[in-house]
Amino acid sequence: LELEGELHLALAANDQLYLDYQPQADIRSGRIVGLEALMRWRHPRLGLVGPMRFIPLAESCGLIAALGDKALDLACRQAVHWQNSGLPPVPVAVNLSAVQWSQPGLADTIRQALTQSGLAPQWLELELTESASMHNPMATLATMKALREMGVMMSIDDFGTGFCNLSYLKRFPVDKLKIDQSFVREITSLPDDLVISQLVVAMGHLLHLSVVAEGVETEGQLTLLAEAGCDIIQGYYFSRPVSAEACGELMAGGK
Ligand code: G
Ligand code: G
Ligand code: MN
Ligand code: NA
Question: Whose Cα sits closest to atom 20 in ligand 1?
């Protein structure tokens, strides 16, 4: 496929692949308490190629490790840059695909990204989906334990859409649950979605996890999530994913 060749070239180029950042806000104070790094590909001829296209492509053609290294490297360096410019430090979350979570070298890769950037481990957060954890549960668990010992944060992304295996939830050393945006989207009109969100919050808190709602777009959604006891919101209502520069301005603005 032609796009595969282009992705190879993009990895070697220096400016085609970059990260946007979406802030996560404390649901009560509105303070920024975290950021999610989201990979973008701006191709000189094709324009913006969406991650829903190039991430699966990278997974299937063996480029996901290189792409993941790039995301980790960029995110760690950016986090150090923000901290050095005096902004209050917050964890920066990087998405890792199932393929990456199954690879035995992942903990070393992450240790390297931290060492090379000088970022303290507590400011790096790694996201995994439930299906990623099912891909190769033993390898994933071993990696997660090593990362926990290093002091890196971990979150379960798109929670509720995979095969919610509650025994994994108990055994995996994670810090955060992210309620999938499919439950948030119609939370004001579908009672089932409200109940599911309430249950995820309650369960998360019983397991001492903080709970993030994704895809929050309206004040109505925010109100119900706050009533449910949800801790953190992420979504267009607070901010879209923005450039590193714009994100720094949001943080400096005391948001
Ligand atoms: O904002 P959005 O269109 O960026 O993201 C679409 C999907 O791509 C999401 O599922 C997100 O988790 C995934 N994604 C974005 N950036 C990365 C990345 O750096 N690595 C991996 N594995 N997935 C990513
Ligand atoms: O799969 P993951 O949760 O990593 O991907 C997050 C995706 O959700 C990204 O594509 C991001 O751009 C998108 N996103 C973030 N906030 C909102 C929102 O409020 N509404 C919608 N529809 N998408 C959002
Ligand atoms: Mn995510
Ligand atoms: Na998600």
Answer: 95
* Residue 220 resides in a domain: no
Query: What local confidence, expressed as pLDDT, does residue 130 receive?
Result: 85
Report CA(39)–ligand 1 centroid distance (Å): 6
Residue 196 lies in a domain: no
ipTM: 0.97
Q: 151 in the Ramachandran plot: left (φ > 0), alpha (ψ -120 to 50) or beta?
A: left
- CATH code at position 161: 3.20.20.450
Nearest alpha carbon to residue 222 among 21, 7, 28 = 28
Nearest CA to ligand 1 atom 12: 95
Residue nearest (by alpha carbon) to ligand 1 atom 1: 38
Secondary-structure percent of the chain, ordered helix, strand, coil, rounded to 5: 50, 20, 30
Residue 237 located in a structural domain? no
Whole-angstrom Cα distance, residue 168 to residue 141?
9
Q: Say if 79 falls within a structural domain.
A: yes
Q: How confident is the model at residue 19 (pLDDT cuts 50, 70, 90)?
A: very high
Q: In total, how many domains does the chain have?
A: 1
- Which ligand has its closest atom nearest to the C-alpha of 177? 4
Encode pLDDT of 81-97 as tens digits.
Answer: 999 999 999 999 999 99
Residues with C-beta less than 6 Å from any ligand 2 atom: 22, 38, 95, 157-158, 181, 214-217, 235-236, 241
Residues spanned by the domain of 126: 2-175+242-252
